[in-house]
Amino acid sequence: MPFEPVTQEKLSQGVIRQIEELILRGILRPGERLPSERELSDRMGVSRPSLREALADLQERGLLTSKMGAGVFVADVLGSAFAPALVTLFATHDTAVFDYISFRRDMEGLAAERAAQFGSDTDLKVIDTVYAKMEAAHQKRNPADEAQLDADFHLAIIEASHNVVMLHMMRSMYQLLREGVFYNRTIMFKQRLTRDQLLDQHRAINDALQARDPAAARAAVESHLGFVETALFGHQKAEKNEVYAQKRFEAENTR
């Protein structure tokens, strides 16, 4: 018979399962520092030896990493999502930019649809809170802050979709975007008209989510990323035109 004796779970296993779940759900993020050993053992109600045993297991499996004198951190588990050679290809070929946006449109449209259906009231509060920060940053006219909050807003929607595979896949994609592998996000926030349009688009996404309207949420995300695609294409075309304009100017000055 396929039965085994029931044994009481070790406390360290309970700690392991809890930390694993927090990492899996994206609540503990890559690079995030865990509380001190004393605080963590108090919060989880376990002895320090049990906690140390659990942390050692998680470090051995590459989910946590210890830094001398700094503490224990969530490992950069996203770093291996793409090989360095492929990242270099992404960064040097325009095709990757538009394929990336197309991929985001499909994935994030689905995520918004799911978030409107399956997100909890607290999930929607998180999204609304990030959007409120976007409005505040918009008044300060800081492109870097707006770009960061833009990423946070979209990731909050993906988190609210409650699909852990999509969450970690998209997190790795956003990390490359933050590093400028696909395109420089701040380009989108330099002109006042574009910034206003982007804020309006994010407002439409947030409104649809708060209304729990899956179809409207998906349509708003798809419309927003269609705008991003068109704006980036226009920017790239303008840059190429400027190169030729400068060549004509140089030639004219030598005649």
Describe this entry's structure for a reader.
The protein contains 10 helices and 2 strands; from the N terminus they run αααββααααααα. A hairpin with a 3-residue loop joins β1 and β2. Strands 1-2 form a two-stranded antiparallel sheet. It is globular. The termini are far apart. α4 (84-92) crosses α5 (94-118). It has helices spanning 11-24, 37-44, 48-60, 84-92, 94-118, 121-140, 143-160, 164-178, 192-210, 214-253, and strands at 64-67, 71-74. It has 255 residues and is mainly alpha-helical. The chain is 71% helix and 3% strand.
Write the layout of secondary structure elements.
Layout: H1 11-24, H2 37-44, H3 48-60, E1 64-67, E2 71-74, H4 84-92, H5 94-118, H6 121-140, H7 143-160, H8 164-178, H9 192-210, H10 214-253
Antiparallel strand pairs: 1-2
Helix pairs in contact: 1-3, 4-5, 5-7, 5-9, 5-10, 6-7, 6-9, 7-8, 9-10
Features of this protein?
single chain, 255 residues, mainly alpha, two-stranded antiparallel ribbon, 10 helices, 2 strands, 71% helix, 3% strand, globular
- Listing every helix as H and every strand as E from the N terminus to the C terminus, the arrangement reads HHHEEHHHHHHH
Low-confidence stretches: none
Structural class computed from helices and strand pairing? mainly alpha
Largest sheet: 2 strands, antiparallel
The Cα radius of gyration reads: 23 Å
Mean pLDDT: 85
| Strand order, sheet with most strands | 1-2
- Characterize the overall form: globular
N- to C-terminal distance: 95 Å
- Helix tally equals 10
Beta-strand content bin: under 5%
What proportion of the residues is helical, as a percent range?
A: over 70%
Counting DSSP E segments of at least 2 residues, the number of strands comes to 2
